[in-house]
Specification:
133 residues; alpha+beta; 5-stranded antiparallel β-sheet; two-stranded antiparallel sheet; 3 helices; 7 strands; 30% helix
């Protein structure tokens, strides 16, 4: 299964942290970095973002646990709570899968319900989709 991901960081050495996450994910393809202001919360720290895809035999909920383990390993201390967001060393979101899997659970929603409204996701995602076409 292919997992399309969005990765972001606005603390520390953002690019190096994302590169390490991609290494730990065994990334197949990634976009260029895309820089943006924080969305849905105030922060003086700009985000570095990219999109990537990863091939894995893991099922989606198992893959989610894997991405969360990588986040913790790279210094992520807390997740968003009740739509309250915080600065973060790394954030890894699963956007969608190929073949398509639809999940609506408390832990995971696929495809990601907010991705189409986020330029910091759609611009780098379009880049890797075009490379893959």
């Amino acid at each position: 299964m292919l997992y399309y991901l969005s990765l972001g960081s606005n603390l520390g050495n953002r690019e190096a942290t994302i590169e390490e996450a991609l290494r730990l994910l065994h990334c197949s393809q990634r976009s260029s970095f895309y820089y943006s202001k924080a969305v849905d919360f105030e922060s003086p720290n700009a985000f570095c973002n990219c999109c990537a895809y990863v091939e894995s035999k893991m099922e989606p909920l198992e893959f989610l646990v894997f991405t969360q383990q990588i986040e913790r390993k790279l210094g992520r201390e807390r997740k968003s709570v009740d739509s309250r967001h915080f600065d973060r060393t790394i954030d890894i979101d699963i956007l969608f899968t190929e073949p398509e899997v639809r999940i609506e659970s408390e832990k995971l929603m696929l495809p990601h319900p907010k991705m189409h409204n986020r330029p910091f996701v759609m611009v780098p995602l379009q880049e890797i989709l075009q490379k893959n076409a």
